[in-house]
Write a structure and sequence with these properties.
Length: 89
């Protein structure tokens, strides 16, 4: 199942409608700010809604689909926009 970010990215690629690119970029920024740790390069396996969207590593069990969502979003957005920094995280 594709993420909302990937769907928006693919719709932007197919239609050139800037609304889809804005949605994809905003969605990716959220994922980056919440799931990715710039300090050590870790991707959270979840977030805790009860603690201000903090990392929930280990609390929810290891959930690789959360990391996959982040990687898929970064790769898809980077690929269609040509932003190689997104595909090289």
């Amino acid at each position: 199942m594709a993420s909302t970010n990937s769907l928006s990215t693919l719709l932007w690629n197919a239609t050139s409608n800037a609304t889809y690119l804005t949605a994809a970029s905003t969605s990716y920024e959220f994922l980056y700010n919440v799931f990715y740790s710039v300090h050590d390069g870790d991707i959270a396996d979840g977030i805790s809604a009860s603690d201000g969207c903090s990392f929930a590593n280990g609390e929810l069990g290891w959930l690789p689909q959360d990391a996959a969502l982040f990687v898929e979003s970064a790769y898809t957005l980077g690929k269609v926009t040509g932003n190689t920094s997104l595909t090289e995280l």
